[in-house]
Amino acid sequence: MGGTVVICAAGALVVGVTGTLLGHWQEGLAVALGLLLGSVNGLLAFRALGAGAGFVTTSLGRLALLSAAGIGAAALIDLRLAPLVLVGIAVAQLALAVAAAVAMVRV
């Protein structure tokens, strides 16, 4: 889980710098924010394990929370960039899934 946060933070830095160098700093920032927001999902999922609620309930709650946070973050830059923030969140979820799969194979 911690490794995923580091990977997403590094990816956010690369995307942000690349976007700036290409003259699209807002787009780069939008994807970077999405990566950072999405990286928090692993921690939220871990904490939800002890909540006593069902998997579907906690998953839908996290999805709603991350989506709302992504749209809110996009509103700070330019609401038209919300899809890019959500793409960053999705890529972070993919990184989390890959990390979980790798961890399961190692066991």
Task: Provide structural commentary.
The protein is built from 5 helices and no strands. It is mostly helical and 107 residues long. It has one domain (2-106). α1 runs antiparallel to α2, α2 runs antiparallel to α4 (55-77) and α3 packs antiparallel against α4. The chain is flat.
The count of strands amounts to: 0
- Computed Rg: 15 Å
Mean pLDDT: 90
Protein structure class: mainly alpha
- The stretches of 5 or more residues where confidence is low (pLDDT under 50) are none
Give a quick summary of the entry.
The chain is mostly helical and 107 residues long.
Please give the structural blueprint.
Layout: H1 2-21, H2 25-39, H3 41-48, H4 55-77, H5 82-106
What brief labels describe this structure?
107 residues; mainly alpha; flat
